[in-house]
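Data availability (excerpt). The following record was deposited with the supplementary files.
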Amino acid sequence: MRFDSLYSEYPTRRSAVFGKKGMVCTSQPLAAQAGLDILKRGGNAVDAAVAAAACLTVVEPTSNGIGGDAFALVWMKERLHGLNASGPAPAGIDAEALRAMGYSNVPQYGWIPVTVPGAPSAWAALSKRFGRLPFEELLKPAIGYAEEGFPVSPVVSRLWDRAFGESCEHMKDDFFRHWFETFAPEGRAPRAGEVWSSADHGRTLRRIAESGGEDFYRGGLAEEIDSFSRAAGGFIRKEDLAQYQPQWTDPISVNYRGYDVWELPPNGHGMVALMALNILNGYDFTGREREDTYHYQIEALKSAFADGLAHIADPGYMEADVAAMLSETYADQRRSLISDRAAEPCPGKPEQGGTVYLCTADGDGNMVSYIQSNYMGFGSGLVVPGTGIALHNRGCNFSLKEGHPNCLAPGKRPYHTIIPGFMTRDGKAVGPFGVMGGFMQPQGHVQMVMNAVDFHMDPQEALSAPRWQWTEGRRVAIEREVSPAIVEGLIRRGHQVTIPTDFTDFGRGQIIWRTENGVLVGGSEPRTDGVVAAW
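Predicted structure:
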């Protein structure tokens, strides 16, 4: 029996899930259950997040892997902590050399876009600082699924098949064959319900677990990455890996109608969502499904993205001041430029990305907002032989334009699309939220916050509601469930509206809110295989 038709249409609506002792929301049920099992064994929200994140590298390889980056917001002991586990460009690459090779943009596939992966360092750092259980215990579920295999879920199968088609078209060089051997051993993507395994992936996770992540950066795995890179003409070296450490950082926020909305500071683009919310703070919205609501949301987001794409970079290279860009004065200036007609911001064309987002909560009040990614599906198309490590292509977001704050340089981190979100009120946690999907992410954050705060939706209602996505210029994609009258009104205002048939283009999110009496309320994305596992 085959299941090729699963999720061929928009997914069935769901209801919010309630719990008391713990909750894990992920885009893949097996990962959510792995996190919940860790909670039931005495782990806390951080332990559950690490277990689920490691598990997702196995059960959702279409969007993330061991060779990707990660970010986290951790609410622990009534304080919010930020972790930036994005890696820099190798020491042996720069924009001038690529321009001399004839490149005007960083390519998507191959060695050029590979930066130092940060995900394994994120798992180890989170566990060491906040975890309750031994690190080795947290990776056991992922190791089991890698070695024993797991049945592929429907949306993952759909995305896998799409990636396989793109890989066949673009990945012609011999060093890409390891990707096909790992992810398409039957000469095609696995179908929904078929069992896929990777013994190599399992062995690598064991080495990471036993060494607390050290083997990846300063051990045998680092040597294997270096060897493959040298043999295939790549740039990354074991020295790049050895020098890397994730960074703990202070989150940034704006107040939106009494709620503090938190993001990580650059090099991520969470501040795009915050700038848009600052602009939207100046409007009164009388309903969600209204033409003017959609219009002002889109215009505020476009304005914020125009600034973000021009200024966000590795903080050491930014000329713009984050605090100034998040000020009410600047928001007033940007809002004054918005009219009742669609504007042409011309900030460049955002692209789709491959990412997983998860959130966790435990009975002690701790909560985690976590995101990791290989970017653009499986990433660079490179798999380190014998390891199952799919290397990401996060360097695609670098500019090659001389003088741009995000211009590629050795040891520099690129503009980053993956962003975890968190909300508090009066100094108390409301909860974590996130929407994966490349440049859709700040757009999803804005829509989730407004759904909750302005339109009083519970987490599942907020995730299930129809979405829009600005793509470039005056172009905006809108889900087909939006009223035709709203679509026609937006067209009259000058928006160039498309209605895509693929629901996976609008991001995939998870939310957990904590009520005043301590009850956890969770929602999981209906546009993917996600689930809320509650206790």
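Summary of structural features: Confidence is low (pLDDT under 50) at residues 1-8, 347-352.
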